[in-house]
């Protein structure tokens, strides 16, 4: 078996002093007076674009401005951690931690959301699940922009994005012995890239991993050979964003910066905040100036872009950069005293995220499985696990990250009430009643209401499709599972902090504010309960502990959801949506901001709505496609 080049293994241990990072800029005095392209945000999509532009146009200069700094990016479960799964939420450098406003619909609880604050962005801190949505997700994006976007040469349906999924990652097949041991399956035609962004299957599983997979199969859920090729309804093996030899995290800071940092036309400035973009003349004549603020000494300066400015600061910071620039909803900008430059009501609207409750059980007839996460508390076992992780190739528990197995099920395949639910969505889209569940900012703007109505119409059709997933359940071990709601109807907002506009934004998450989200959560829980009646679960005497067998009515299940709901699985999106301006959109299919010259957005804020996947792979694909669009426009 031939493994990919592992030059960046050493970088993982010595990021702060490794030679590829010596070129990083820390002061604006180290910069040119102007650059052809300026990118705000050195994260997953931003670094992808910077890599491609600097490679294609060696005569043009590219500057990336990153809020964070270089930070070690461990995997979700790396030594010296001994509690499996705990490392993903433990505070560490390189992470933004946001807390939303209280949600009155869910007992005034708040969402806690983590995002990358480092070179590599969220790809350097996420859960490493590296899956793609179904073809129906991306086809729904295209329908959201139709007929207004139909004439565009840039297509964002599955056919238009699949080549960029393939290009964005290098997948390495597992060793035959590992395939035989765990039953891994894949289709190489879904991959094919040579980019130093790696994905692979781990050479380890906890001993009880097969229990849930067998139970799902006994429930009649299809077992899929490959879920990265557009067809995703079923039980899937999911690659991890890790190097196949070292099992260390593979992220954009390595693959799209450290690998190419010696290019003289590619500059990266760290520990600086892009505060706003400034149009010296009319907003339609760009590109704008970029205003920067040093996070070390608060110095403010302007950098000139000769070609264009690209915002890639993420779901929370891209809309706040726009709002500080006077680009956003006019009533809000007037409220905070920012002069209006361009009225775009969709800036900071349409916020949503994957959420879900926990389903849990106990075994009354234990299977005496080994090895299990509890074994990591044994000093000798943990030491052996650490030694295996440092083998070449890496082995053992530390290679697993969080999980690489999941079930994805459509609404028609999990509940007989699917027609009732989708009819309810269609009705509220038609009669306008859905507006009563939206943030107040929507109610005064007909474009936001029209855009939401179109989303509901598309989502009702999507959820009626027996091949389009509504539920995700990742699993690796244990006696509990999270029920991800993949396509929520609730919408929130991202707004500048009124009293401190340069501080972190105010998030109004509003999860489950639309009551149909509760209908979906309840349907998902009732479906998961069927696991316990399967022969596999009966063999081990599985008994439900959460919600519990005594919790039967829909109302009681809704209360359980309110008590246990995880508001964010760290996949916030859609706050600068790629929709027509008349539907509250912020960018068009070329990713140019409506009405603003020389300004584009390239990150997951441009998604019209969420996909049936964790968002990392989609962010890379968006970055790759955006780079081709930008390159094409400047070649022309």
* CATH class label of the domain at 9-70 and 130-141 and 251-351 and 575-635: Alpha Beta
Number of helical segments? 17
Low-confidence stretches: 1-18
Straight-line distance between termini = 43 Å
Helix content: 25-40%
- CATH-derived architecture of the domain at 9-70 and 130-141 and 251-351 and 575-635: 3-Layer(bba) Sandwich
Kindly report the average pLDDT value. 94
CATH topology of the domain at 9-70 and 130-141 and 251-351 and 575-635: FAD/NAD(P)-binding domain
Sheet having the most strands:
7 strands, mixed
Rg of Cα set: 24 Å
What percentage of the residues does DSSP assign to strands (E)? 15-25%
Topology:
Layout: H1 9-13, E1 34-40, H2 44-56, E2 62-66, E3 95-99, E4 112-116, H3 135-144, H4 158-167, E5 170-172, H5 176-182, E6 198-200, H6 209-218, E7 234-237, H7 252-255, E8 266-270, E9 272-278, E10 289-294, E11 300-311, H8 314-324, E12 327-328, H9 330-336, E13 342-343, E14 358-363, H10 379-389, E15 405-410, H11 418-431, H12 440-443, H13 446-463, E16 469-474, E17 480-482, E18 484-485, E19 493-495, E20 506-508, H14 516-529, H15 535-539, E21 542-546, H16 554-564, E22 599-601, H17 616-635
Parallel strand pairs: 1-2, 1-11, 2-8, 5-6, 11-22, 12-13
Antiparallel strand pairs: 3-4, 7-15, 9-10, 10-11, 14-17, 14-21, 15-16, 16-18, 19-20
Keywords: FAD, Flavoprotein, Signal
Protein name: Glucose-methanol-choline oxidoreductase N-terminal domain-containing protein
Organism: Massariosphaeria phaeospora
């Amino acid at each position: 078996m031939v493994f990919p080049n592992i030059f960046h293994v050493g970088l993982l241990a010595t990021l702060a002093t490794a030679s590829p990072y010596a070129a990083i800029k820390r002061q604006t005095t180290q910069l040119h007076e102007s650059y052809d392209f300026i990118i705000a945000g050195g994260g997953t999509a931003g670094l992808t674009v910077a890599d491609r532009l600097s490679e294609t146009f060696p005569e043009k200069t590219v500057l990336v401005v990153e809020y964070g700094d270089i930070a070690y990016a461990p995997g979700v479960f790396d030594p010296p951690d001994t509690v499996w799964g705990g490392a993903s939420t433990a505070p560490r450098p390189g992470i933004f931690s946001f807390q939303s406003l209280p949600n009155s619909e869910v007992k005034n609880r708040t969402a806690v959301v983590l995002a990358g604050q480092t070179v590599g962005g969220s790809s350097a801190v996420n859960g490493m699940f590296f899956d793609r949505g179904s073809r129906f997700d991306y086809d729904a994006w295209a329908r959201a922009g139709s007929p207004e976007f139909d004439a565009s040469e840039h297509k964002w349906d599955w056919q238009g994005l699949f080549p960029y999924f393939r290009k964005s990652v290098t997948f390495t097949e597992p060793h035959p012995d590992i395939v035989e041991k765990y039953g891994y399956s894949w289709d190489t035609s879904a991959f094919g890239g040579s980019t130093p962004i790696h994905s692979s299957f781990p050479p380890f599983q906890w001993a009880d991993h097969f229990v849930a997979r067998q139970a799902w199969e006994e429930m009649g859920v299809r077992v899929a050979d490959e879920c990265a090729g557009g067809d995703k309804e079923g039980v899937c093996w999911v690659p991890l964003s890790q190097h196949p030899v070292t099992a260390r995290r593979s992220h954009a800071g390595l693959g799209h910066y450290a690998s190419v940092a010696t290019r003289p036309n590619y500059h990266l400035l760290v520990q600086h905040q892009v505060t706003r973009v400034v149009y010296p003349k009319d907003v339609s004549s760009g590109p704008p100036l970029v205003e920067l603020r040093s996070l070390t000494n608060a110095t403010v300066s302007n950098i000139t872009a000769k070609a264009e400015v690209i915002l890639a600061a993420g779901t929370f910071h891209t809309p706040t950069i726009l709002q500080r620039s006077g680009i956003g909803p006019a009533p809000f900008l007037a409220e905070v005293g920012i002069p209006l430059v361009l009225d775009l009501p969709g800036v900071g609207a349409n916020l949503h995220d994957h959420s879900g409750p926990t389903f849990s059980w106990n075994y009354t007839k234990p299977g005496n499985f080994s090895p299990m996460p509890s074994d990591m508390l044994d000093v000798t076992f943990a030491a052996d696990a650490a030694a295996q992780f440092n083998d070449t190739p890496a082995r053992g528990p530390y290679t697993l990250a969080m999980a690489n197995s999941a079930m994805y099920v459509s609404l028609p395949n999990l509940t007989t009430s699917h027609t009732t639910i989708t009819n309810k969505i269609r009705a509220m889209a038609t009669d306008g009643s859905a507006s009563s569940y939206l943030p107040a900012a929507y109610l005064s703007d007909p474009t936001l209401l029209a855009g939401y109505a179109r989303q509901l119409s598309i989502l009702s059709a999507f959820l009626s499709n027996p091949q389009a997933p509504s539920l995700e359940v990742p699993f690796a071990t244990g006696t509990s599972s999270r029920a991800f709601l993949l396509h929520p109807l609730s919408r929130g907002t991202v707004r500048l902090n009124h009293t401190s506009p340069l501080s972190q934004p105010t998030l109004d998450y509003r999860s489950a504010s639309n009551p149909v989200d509760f209908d979906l959560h309840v349907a998902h829980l009732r479906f998961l309960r069927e696991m316990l009646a399967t022969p596999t679960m009966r063999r081990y005497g599985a008994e439900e502990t959460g919600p519990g067998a005594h919790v039967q009515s829909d109302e009681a299940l809704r209360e359980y959801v309110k008590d246990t709901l995880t508001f964010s699985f760290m996949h916030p999106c859609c706050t600068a949506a790629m929709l027509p301006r008349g539907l509250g959109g912020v960018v068009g299919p070329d990713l140019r901001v409506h009405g603003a010259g020389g300004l584009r957005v390239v990150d997951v804020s441009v998604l019209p709505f969420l996909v049936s996947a964790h968002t990392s792979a989609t962010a890379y694909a968006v970055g790759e496609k955006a780079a081709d669009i930008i390159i094409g426009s400047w070649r022309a």
